[in-house]
Amino acid sequence: MSEVWSMDWYLVPLQYDCRHCGTQADGYGLVLGPNTQVSQGTTAENWDVDRLGTYGAVCGWKRAGPQRCEFITAMSEGRLRFTKDELLLACEHCGGRTGLGAVAPTAMENFVQWGSLRAMRNERRMIVAKGADIAKFHDGTVIDFDRAIGPSFAVVARGACHNDSRGQGRIEILLDLAAGHYAWSTMFGNRGSQKAWSTLSAVSGRQIATMVEQLALAEIDLTSLGCIDDAGPVCRFAFEQIVNGLMASGYACDAGRS
Questions:
Q1: SS3 250
Q2: Residue 83 contacts by C-beta under 8 Å, 6 or more apart in sequence?
Q3: What count of other Cβ atoms lies within 10 Å of the Cβ of residue 197?
Q4: Contact criterion met (CB below 8 Å) for 51 and 117
Q5: 121, 175, 218, 227: least surrounded by Cβ within 10 Å?
Q6: What's the average model confidence in pLDDT over 14-41?
Q7: What distance in Å separates the CA atoms of residue 224 and residue 241, rounded to the nearest whole number?
Q8: Eight-state DSSP code of residue 45
Q9: Which residues lie closer than 8 Å to 234 by C-beta, 6 or more apart?
C-alpha cells in the first residue's frame, strides 16, 4: 500500500449487490486524478514521491488520522464510512460493510461514461491516506472537463526573513498540491507583502535554486524555517526538499531549519 495525498479526486455514484443481504444498494466509488501524489517509501530517507500520472480507482483506503477525510461520509450521504480507519461501503438496507475493491471496476466504468459527458465533479479538497491500494486506468484515459480549475496552494513551511530596508519579516513557502510547484510569500510588518511564483517541482525537479534567486533579487535573507505539520506526509516531504535545496544553494544548515 502507498501513502497518498490528493486534491484531484471524484466520488462516483454506483450500484452494487450487498454481499451481506443480497440486495442491490446505492453507493460510491472513489477515483483519484493524475495529479494525485503517491509515496512508496516508509521513511523520510526512502521516500519516492511521484504523481499517479493517470486516473485510478481506489480499492482500499486507510485514513491518516481521525480528522482527515471524515467529510467523505457526509458527501456520500453515509454510503461510505470509516470502520477501524478503513473506508468501506455501507449498505443502506442492512448496514453491512463492503470493501471498495469490490466496486472498483464499476466505479471505473461509470467514471469514464459520465466523465465524457462532463457529469463528474472534481472535489478539490485535501484527502490523505496512510495506505491506499489503487487500480490504474488504461494509459491514455483522458477526461477533459477540468481546465478551469486553478492552483491549489497550501502552506508547508513558515519562517523568519530579513530585508535591510524593511527589517525583520515572516516568510511562507507554499506548495501547489496538484501541480507540485512551489511559491513563496513574505510579509514585513504592516507595510505590504511580496509574493512570487516559482517554476520548481516537488515531484521531478526538486531544485530550490530559482527560489533562492528570487529571494536574492528581492534582497531578502531567509533566517529560519520550520515545517508547519510534522505529522503530514506532504509537508514532511516538501520541507525536506526545501531544506536540502537551500543547503545546496549555500544556506547554512541552521539557517534552513528552526
A1: coil
A2: 97
A3: 16
A4: no
A5: 121
A6: 90
A7: 15
A8: G
A9: 5, 37, 128, 154, 156, 175, 177
